[in-house]
Amino acid sequence: MNHTRHLFMSGAAAALLLIIAPLGAETSPSVDRAAALAAAQAGNWAQAEPALAALAAAEPADVEACTVLAQHKLDAKESKEAVRLLERATEAQPNRAALHALLGQALGQRIGEVTFIQQGLMSGKLRRAFARALELEPNNLTGLIGLAYYHLNAPAIAGGSNQKAIEYAARVAAVEPFNGALLQGDISARREEWAEAARHYRTALGFQPAHGWLQVKLGDALRGAGQNPEARQAYEAALLLSPELPAALEGIKRLAAVKE
Q1: 3-state secondary structure (DSSP) of residue 256
Q2: 3-state secondary structure string, 56-117?
Q3: Three-class SS of residue 226?
Q4: Cα torsion at 180, 181, 183, 187 (round to 10°)?
Q5: For 67-90, what is the mean pLDDT?
Q6: pTM of the model
Q7: CA-CA distance, 198 to 192, in Å (whole number)?
């Protein structure tokens, strides 16, 4: 199921998806919990990590320690450990939508690192994590976006569906217009409906214009629609925002090749 390797967007877009509120602890093992959390917040992971690991391993698990440490593991590209921590957190507090949504994100990162057979098994867990988040909180933005991209990228045999992706994208747009327009653009681009994709990307840029990577998406859509002068303008706008952005330079290179 190699389609699932690209289940999520780039890090820049994916970073928009989730804000986890502080989650209360249920236990206080013989470590200084407050000091551990303060050290984590300060970025002092040499002090924070062993203490948080002890809290996370306690019975019952300290949910906030699990969450904070899992986020650190995701940032460090240690997704396997992040998944384990978040599974403990969701077992300890199964009715928190944010925990299930973050577990879905962790599984989305992990799925690109495992074998083909493991991907098939993991994709179901990923979909269930996002679905559970929506059961608990129907407008959970991370859950909506996660399921939209799941259905966009997963093959039909794994439950993927363009129509469901479109439906989730509409729900995202109702909650948060920027991410909704971005999703709708990606869905249109996947269907090679280039003019429609460009329209959605322009809408997204209207909400957040300072994204070079989004200007590249617009440029790619315009190039697909045969609007090469407008595509060049989008790539050049991307370079103004992010000089030497490789995708923008590649887009301009492809436009130049068309002229030759």
Answers
A1: helix
A2: HHCCCCCHHHHHHHHHHHHHCCCHHHHHHHHHHHHHHCCCCHHHHHHHHHHHHHHHHHCCHH
A3: coil
A4: 130
A5: 96
A6: 0.81
A7: 11
Residue at token pair 């990228």 = 153
Q: Name which of 209, 208, 214, 215 is nearest 231 in CA terms.
A: 215
* Residue-range domain boundaries for the chain: 179-260
Model confidence band, residue 259 (pLDDT cutoffs 50, 70, 90):
low
Query: What span, in angstroms and rounded, lies between the C-alpha atoms of 1 and 121?
Result: 10
Q: What is the largest CA-CA distance in the chain?
A: 70
**At 71, phi and psi to the nearest 5?**
-65, -40
Distance separating alpha carbons of residues 174 and 232, to the nearest angstrom:
32
Superfamily (CATH H level) for 179-260: Tetratricopeptide repeat domain (1.25.40.10)
Closest CA to 131 of 196, 123, 212: 123
Q: To the nearest 10°, report the CA torsion of 176, 8, 87, 117.
A: 150
- For 119, half-sphere exposure in the C-beta direction (CA atoms, 13 angstrom radius) is 20
Distances (CA, A) of 210 to 122, 193, 206, 224, 237: 35, 25, 10, 23, 10
Burial-class residue 258 by CB neighbours within 10 Å (0-12, 13-18, 19+).
exposed
Split at pLDDT 50, 70, 90, the class of 121 is confident
Q: CA of 34: how far to CAs of 25, 31, 51, 232, 244, in Å?
A: 11, 9, 10, 53, 43
Lowest mean pLDDT segment, chosen from 105-109, 114-118, 130-134, 225-229? 114-118
First to last CA, the chain: 38
Question: Do you know the residue count of the chain?
Answer: 260
